[in-house]
Specification:
It contains five helices and no strands. By secondary structure, it is an all-alpha fold.
Length: about 110
């Protein structure tokens, strides 16, 4: 059984090998599914974050969690969160941050909601 903290989430020790085991897409889907209390299978890159009822606070909390899971990736580009429209945009941002290519504070490619 995995170690959990006081509110039932996996501890950092239980998630420290996440980068080696999971892709950014799998991790983002997992975090979104837990936040929305739904299955990962119900989430797609094309889903609008607003349709999933993901707001700015949710995105910031997810980014903080990502920094805990992967502290060696440096500071998360929080400003870029304001530019996200779709789940796929979040996946791309996380992938770039993990790879060290995210433009710190300059945003990310924006999808059209149409």
């Amino acid at each position: 059984m995995k170690a959990k903290n006081w509110n039932g989430e996996p501890t950092l020790a239980a998630t420290e090998d996440v980068k080696a085991r999971r892709s950014p897409r799998v991790l983002v889907y997992s975090l979104l599914a837990r936040l929305r209390e739904t299955s990962e299978a119900s989430i797609a890159d094309t889903d609008l974050l607003i349709d999933l009822e993901i707001d700015a606070v949710d995105l910031v909390l997810m980014a903080i969690k990502l920094e805990e899971i992967e502290p060696d990736s440096g500071p998360f580009p929080f400003v870029a969160l304001a530019c996200l429209v779709r789940v796929g945009d979040l996946v791309e941002l996380v992938d770039g941050w993990w790879r060290g290519k995210a433009a710190r504070g300059s945003g990310t490619r924006r999808s059209s909601p149409m």
